[in-house]
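Quarterly update from the structural biology core.
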Amino acid sequence: MDIVNQQPIKSFDLILTRMMLQHLYFHDIQKFLHKISQTQSSYILMTTFSRTRQNADLQISEENPGRFRRLNLEIPPLSLTPPLCIQRDGPPREYEGWDHFIGLWKLPLKQ
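Predicted structure, tokenized:
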């Protein structure tokens, strides 16, 4: 399913988008979040890099061929309200740069 351009077929109690939004451009993320918020789904679990202080749009380059960047969902341009709960996700703390979390948001999303 094309999560950006297709409407979800039905609603769910919980939608999981682990390590997905970090690979999309801002305009595609906003489009997806808007569509998900219009469903009758209850909650969404999403990866967030809550310690990241500034979001940058996706830049594809030789150094970043995998289309990835750290993304804090609570700061501009996404500016979501804080999640209901948040849990560290990923390898132990000693791995530099892997400071991602999984957050639970109530739908529809609020900014």
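The chain has a mean pLDDT of 89.
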